[in-house]
Amino acid sequence: MTNLDTLVALAKRRGFIYPGSEIYGGLAGTWDYGHYGLALKNNLKNLWWKRFVTDREDMYGLDAAILMNERVWQVSGHVEGFSDPLPQKSSELRSDLKNPESQGQTLKQFNLMFRTQIGATDDAQVSYLRPETAQGMFVNFKNTVDSFHPPLPFGIAQIGKAFRNEIAPRDFLFRAREFEQMEIEYFVHPQVGQWEKVFEQFRLALHAFAKEIGLKEIHDLEVLATDRAHYSQRTIDFEFDFPFGRKELWGLAYRTDYDLTAHQLDYHDEATKSKIVPHVIEPSFGVDRTILAILSDAYTEDEMGGEKRVYLKLPPRLAPVTAAIFPLLKNKPELVTKALEIYRSLKLQAISYNLQAIVFDDNGNIGKRYRRQDEIGTPYCVTIDFQTLDDNTVTVRARDTGEQERVAVGELLDKIKDKT
Ligand code: ATP
């Protein structure tokens, strides 16, 4: 854990995340992912998809359009109610206004949806950039049932962009205007006792996932009835200790039959040969907030060889690069040739072993290269030296300890492959 400015600087320096539209002075609430940030984000999304969709037998994927018929947002309640109180002065932040009535003011409500129009004519249809991915799953509930005939309980999962015209975007990726969500709408039978069981299973699954992505701790906050969204009968916010304080990372809500009833959708129950309206449990993850949490917990400073060093202690399966291959000296062709040979062979095999990228680096002295890879979070650095030419062994240096060991080239893959 470190302060936010240090993280923002490292993310930019090492090609993870850049401020959006930076050369034109930026655009508040937008962030661009560079080569390594994108790799980290893809690794996170792939792991989430594996754990919550492909490893299970009761999940169906979806990739719905971002633009939806405006009726969706009228029926869901977003046109009417998805708003924040507008500050009187631009310096006032949203968090200061959680309870405007208590300040004796009636504040104007500002709808957080980005409104747009579809088509060129004057009477063009209104639409919105979706503020959540959830509605895509409800709108495709019937399609999913018709295509796959899933028995209850089952879920629909989606990863995709969401947009909110946040009044005060801030805290790096934490509150952006364009961000990504990973959401599940999980449909259960309305009979007594069903949702509670599933809610608890997801609560535990969220904790297991937090652990797997290297988060030290997430804290359950049972949201009080007075603070819950109108559709929810139980909500847990999973909070994380960000550099700027303990804040919501993910959410888990019991949405009852609110959504399917609103969209007038139901389900034919084979057992009772009758129509029922399933109830919904919704685990909701913000991708970018999760990236920020991962970076916050992975950021580590220690001392190595009498010097301060910074490294990202990322779980290997999230790290943008699994191993970096170095020839000890750039100006010795025999070392470079051997290093390139090992690099290319590992790169080819990495795909079948589910490894992340293998990179080649001959730029600067070895110390500098180690430092660069440490800051990216690369678990292993492999150096090819003169001894390699004699006995076909290399040194493998572990990121967290800095310890080096000699490994035969034939055993390299086994050494660096993910054992989890
Ligand atoms: P907050 O109270 O912080 O505005 P929320 O309760 O409105 O969040 P949800 O509507 O539950 O958030 O959205 C689900 C998840 O999407 C959140 O837990 C968070 O991870 C992510 N998220 C929501 N808004 C933003 C945003 N502006 N920027 C980045 N991520 C966001």
Task: Give your account of this protein's structure.
- The longest helix has 20 residues, at 35-54.
- The chain has 13 helices and 23 strands.
- Mean pLDDT is 93; it is low at 94-102.
- The chain is globular and about 75 Å long.
- Helices cover 31% and strands 30% of the residues.
- Bound molecules: adenosine-5'-triphosphate.
- Adenosine-5'-triphosphate (ATP) binds at residues 132, 164, 166, 175-176, 179, 181, 248-251, 284, 286, 288-289.
- Adenosine-5'-triphosphate binds at residues 132, 164, 166, 175-176, 179, 181, 248-251, 284, 286, 288-289.
**CATH homolog superfamily of the largest domain:** Bira Bifunctional Protein, Domain 2
Report the portion of residues in β strands.
25-35%
- CATH class membership of the largest domain: Alpha Beta
**How many discrete structural domains?**
2
Q: Total helix count? A: 13
Query: Which strand order does the major sheet show?
Result: 3-9-10-16-13-12-11
Shape: globular
Any idea what the CATH architecture of the largest domain is? Answer: 2-Layer Sandwich
Strand count, sense and barrel status of the largest sheet are: 7 strands, mixed
Output the structural class.
alpha+beta
CATH topology of the largest domain: BirA Bifunctional Protein, domain 2
Q: How many distinct beta strands?
A: 23
Low-pLDDT stretches are: 94-102
Average pLDDT figure: 93
What is the CA-atom radius of gyration, in angstroms? 25 Å
Helical coverage, percent range: 25-40%
| Spatial gap, N to C terminus | 24 Å
